[in-house]
Design goal:
Chains A, B: One of its GO terms (biological process) is glycerol catabolic process. The structure is a homodimer. Chain A is α/β, with parallel strands linked by helices. Chain A is built from eight helices and 14 strands. In chain A, helix 3 links the parallel strand 5 and strand 6. Chain A is globular, with a radius of gyration of 19 Å.
């Protein structure tokens, strides 16, 4: 094990401790246990609040997308575990500015269960809730069951677009429509080169022999669609981008945003090598790259690997992507 | 080997390809081989140009600190190898706006040799050159030979402060004074948990048994001051921060900036756990944390590990740290 941690059971709370200490004026705790965190300026009266949440271990995933022009609050679970419905409910109340609250989170059983419970609790208190469940991971279910797919790095586009819409004062229906549109136009494919070790378990979440890769891996190490010998960066980019484009089936001349995301241990340089080929492939297919993002956006602790996300954009989504946004982890 | 690469000999050029493609309007090539890269708006007439450079494999190190309010240009070597004097000289000419050029780079033999050669070439062309060699790595030489120390993550503070001074129109003497001041007030200590594998060699740069750590490791895997069993995050933070504070010997009430930097494979969460203890230790010593930075700023490919940098700030340095800066990898 090569982890810089203290007692594993304190891991998440120590991270929250540090975030509050390192970035004063960014977020504040909505609960005594500090597992519901909201923008320091929450609630924004008359604005839709966006609440996300999920397990820890994905930084800057979830937490990092709370801020101006992004989400209003987040419920923070243990590593790779859903937050509780109470934590989600507390975040909901804390971001509620009277215009309703949108839940945007990845499609995982525990999260769906707890967000739905929180939604019931919030509705009882008279808070309007809408929900968009993110399902961008191509490898996790076939196209005809796309609603069963998991949510992965596409969350960045959903948070950015919905957050910009909420910030400018769009209605709950509108913000929900935009989050849904961003999700339905985003596809992600990942590749894993090494497993993740959970701090509490101290053991890998799965095994992958050295020199092999898993195409379509999930951000908790969920099995993908192909395991085999590690290929070159170009071959991997072809596989990931190819699967995305087959699923999106865009007409020539379409505009896209692309995100090449590191899962934790893969150097930034290697992400750019992947980007190079993926962008070339998009151009070859007659697609125009409107915006590019390369870096660690949604991780899986120290997993080596990467994912590629492509979102089909139009004028509306491009405007929302370009709108100001600000957290310690994301700036526009 | 768990690398997402193509032919190792094309690695650096493919990364540069991708950077130019992904971030249009940020940098441009000053040479046909594109190993001298400068701000898209270079030269800035009447402004001091800052040129840095070093080996590849440290992203966002070097390259990432070219931009508005940062450096003007960079010479890009092969992985962990110095750029050539010609590449440095070409970057120098391309950023020369008539107010002189400052060289700021880490204290490594090859870099010193080539920057000195480039300096001679530039002076012959009538360009005023000053040089500040960065020496923030506490573990690399004792305090009485501090000029022999290597430069590591402290470069971020030197680039930021000198870049802000150049941007506002300070003279070459002034910008050099500020870079030197930032360097002389910065100290870094690193810890490595796993080695780096060079793409071309395909072998680890050093060996470190699983479950061990190397305190004081350099960003190319240079040996540190202590090797032993992996300790807790708090114990590691104590070791790193303790060594820094013994060397800086600051009076109570001093203000500092702190940078907790990931070397490549260490999750952001673990960097925050280190930050938590380091910031606590600074507070215990009566020091005030003026600014905090946590993330991957200067890496060593996929090395697991981290470094802590502390800079003793005053009003002048705090103003420069807070000034606007913009690259795809650093925003203020």
């Amino acid at each position: 094990m090569k982890k810089i941690i203290n007692q594993p059971e304190n891991f998440v709370d120590e991270v929250i401790d540090a975030l509050l200490l390192a970035h004063p004026g960014w977020i504040k705790a909505a609960t005594e246990d500090r597992r519901a965190l909201v923008r320091a300026d929450a609630p924004k009266l008359g604005r839709v609040g966006i609440v996300t949440g999920g397990g820890s271990g994905h930084m800057p995933g979830f937490l990092g997308y709370v801020g101006e022009g992004l989400c209003g609050g987040v419920a923070v679970g243990n590593v790779f575990s859903s937050p509780s419905s109470e934590q989600i409910f507390e975040a909901t109340k804390a971001v509620n500015g009277g215009a309703g609250v949108l839940y945007v989170y990845g499609n995982y059983g525990g999260d769906v269960f707890n967000f739905d419970l929180a939604s019931d609790m919030a509705e009882l208190e008279g808070i309007d809730i809408k929900t968009v469940v993110l399902t961008d991971d191509v490898a996790s279910a076939p196209a005809e069951r796309s609603a069963d797919r998991r949510g992965v790095a596409g969350m960045v586009f959903a948070f950015k677009c919905a957050g910009a819409a909420a910030e400018r004062g769009d209605s709950l229906d509108e913000v929900a429509r935009i989050a849904g549109k961003a999700n339905s136009r985003s596809r992600t494919m990942g590749v894993g080169l090494s497993p993740t070790i959970l701090p509490a378990a101290g053991k890998p979440t799965f095994t992958l022999p050295d020199g092999e890769m898993e195409i379509g891996i999930g951000i908790h190490g969920e099995p993908g669609s192909h395991r085999g010998k590690l290929e070159t960066a170009d071959e991997i980019a072809d596989r990931l981008t190819g699967a995305i484009l087959r699923d999106l089936a865009l007409p020539k001349g379409s505009r896209v945003a692309i995100l090449v995301n590191g899962l934790g241990a893969t150097p930034l340089e290697e992400l750019y090598v992947l980007y190079r080929r993926a962008a070339g492939m998009l151009a070859d297919q007659g697609l125009a790259v409107a915006r590019s993002y390369v870096g660690e956006y949604v991780t899986s602790l120290e997993m080596a690997g990467a994912s590629i996300t492509v979102m089909h954009v139009d004028d509306e989504l491009e405007t929302l992507l370009a709108a100001p946004a600000r957290s310690p982890f994301f700036r526009e």
